[in-house]
Each structure stands twice: as C-alpha cells, then as structure tokens.
Amino acid sequence: MTRPISRPRALFLAPLLFVLGCPAPSEVPDGPPEDLDLILSEDRPSKRSEVLAVADEASNSIVVFGGNQGVIVSQIPRADYLDDTWVFEPGFGWTEVEGDGPSARGRYATAYDRVGHRMLLFGGRYRPTGETGDYSLRRDLWAFDFTTRTWSELDAGDEGPSGRYYPVAAWDEEGAALYLYGGAVNRDALIIQPSSELWRWTDGGGWEELSTSGDAPSSRVFFGSDWDAQRRELLLFAGQIGDFQSLAYNDLYALSLPSGAWRELHPGGDGAPFTRMHPAIRVDAARDRLLLFGGHTDIGDNNDLRAFPLSDDSWEEVYIADEVMGGLGCNGNASEVPQSFVEQDLSAPERRHRGLHAILWDSLFVFGGMHSECSDHLDDTWRFDLATSRWHELIPARSGESCLRRGEDCQCLCN
Fold it and tell me: What is the CA radius of gyration of the chain?
C-alpha cells in the first residue's frame, strides 16, 4: 500500500530521495487528491464523541484528538476519555499519530492557525474511567503542527481563564491572537455554570481578559461556533441554558474581534432550524455562508444540513435527510424508541451530535459522534460534496446506527 505524499512531506523527501537514488516527485501536488472517496488505510479511530477537528489544506489533513468512548446510559455517556491523535487524509484514510501530547479529555476547544499550519487546543474535562463524582477541568493550551505531526504545550494554564469545558476558540490571523469564549466552569456535571468570558492569548503576551458590548446572546452552553475569517467574527448558534429542562435556542450571533462587539444575525423562531444543542456549524468560505449539520434537537438527534448566507438574513435547506416524528416506548419498554420515531434517509449519515466536522476540498467531512436514540457512539466517516449536494459514505459504522441502517430486522429503532 502506497501512502500519498502530502505537500510538506513531498518537499522534505525530495532531496533525500535524490541522494538515495530514488525518483523524487516530479512536482508538488497542487489541489485535492484525485479520488476524495478512496480509502487505502485499514485503520480508524475507535467510536467516540465530544471531539472537534481542524482541517489543513496544505497537508491534506484533518486532525482529531481524544474524546469520550464511555458507555452511554439514559443518553448520558460515562467517562472513558482518550488521549490519542488521529489524522484523516482524503484519498488515503486514517492514521494514528504517535508521540506525546495533551492528557486525556473531551469537550475541549480548537482553533486553526492557517499561517502556522497548526491546530490549537484548549481546556476540556476529564474523569478517570469507571469513577463518579466531580470532573477535572483542563486550562492548558496546546498546538498540533500539521507539518511535523507533533504536539507542543504553549501554556500550562497557571494564569488566564479557569478550567472549563465546551468553550469555543478562534485564531485571528490578522492579529496573531487566539480568542476564547464561554464554556462551562462547573466540576459537578449536574450543576451547569455557563461562562460568558472573552479571553485573548498571544505567543508573547499570554492571556488577557476582554470586555464585550452590544446585543449579546443570553447565558448558555452547548452551542455551535465557528470563525468567519473574512469578517473577523466568531459565530455562535443555538445552545441551551444548561438546566436540561428548558427548550434549546435557535438564534444566531456574531462576535466581532478584537472589538468584542456582539450583533444578532438571526433572532431564531420561525424561519430558523429546529432548536438544538451541540449543533455543528462550519463556515463555507467559498460560498460565504454558514453550514449547520445535525445536533440534538428538543425532539432528538438530527442529520439535517442547512445554510445561512452571511450576506443575507435567512436560512436555506441544503439536505434535510431524516424526518423525526417523535414518540417513545417500544416492546413494553418506555425508554426504548420505536421504528416510527423517524423516517430515515439511508443516503445520509446517521443522526448525531458531538462528532467531528470539517470542511476541506469543497467537502464537509463527518466522523463519529453520539447517537442518543441508540445510546451509542459512532465510528463512521462520511463526505458531503458541497458542489453536487450528495453524501458519500467513506467508512461504514460498526456501532451507533439504527437497525434499518445496519440492515437488521428489529422491533424497535435500534434493537
């Protein structure tokens, strides 16, 4: 099996191949692999959720770290946190990266430094496998170098923001700074304490807390976020107050950086996607729009794909997939989900939240996540072609899918 040589590696290997008498690549590749759906590697990460990913075009790579693979009971995952690093290369597949890196965790924040070809990772939470009680909250900052595939610790967390999980982060290329917003600061999983703090970190100056102004979102956690580099704005969609009882939100906000000024892009309600927690949103810069995939709605998980043009004020449907009908109880068990709970579109990925989502080569890549109704994590990999609006299954799931999707005849949705 021949592994494709990414651009940085091709440049590094060319002189060595010449010395050894081997033919060097004739030219550095410029553009995506010929077949984005080709999978040559037999490896893949284990099933997991509570992860984020960053894509780097120069190395044809998407990197993901850690996460949680704990058993899910009553839609709540037990703690079984990971500290492994995986890279997905379109046209090849998954590779595990060896070497030291951050400690095991999930629910961290990530940001992409395009100039430095690195992923920045902050925070998250951890609890030893099998234990109960309070979580340990991380406050360290790390960088993954796409060229060398190595981790380095940038800040041990002695100063700056307190430990937290589900914060969001963005790297501002113009200001050469990392911005960190929000998250939850509670160690007790049953008492959510949302934060609305805004922090800035620079290589030379460390951490600095900033003030905000304008039309800010209400206090919340479990929202989706991404960075609009063109407008230098951190986008924030949906979320929930953190009491596990109130309805979730479906409004959309933008935080201008470095000014710290908030503005509302859409008030939610009618004309917006279903209210939800843990939505995956990604900026499709080529079309100047925000993409939304899945998340956990107030009815259940979803796998819809929608778009919000950033120069407009209305949402659009891209690929709706499953239609959730609702209803609980199956085979005499009130907690089971019936087959009629959802009308499934088998051409799309399983419904999910807290998985990997990244845009690369005009495609949205999806891996893993949690499927609430089946009480399991997923380990599949999919690609949505943004030009043709078609889903492509690259690596099928071994867990977390409904009976219909895995071709089994069951009485209930998942068993």
Answer: 21
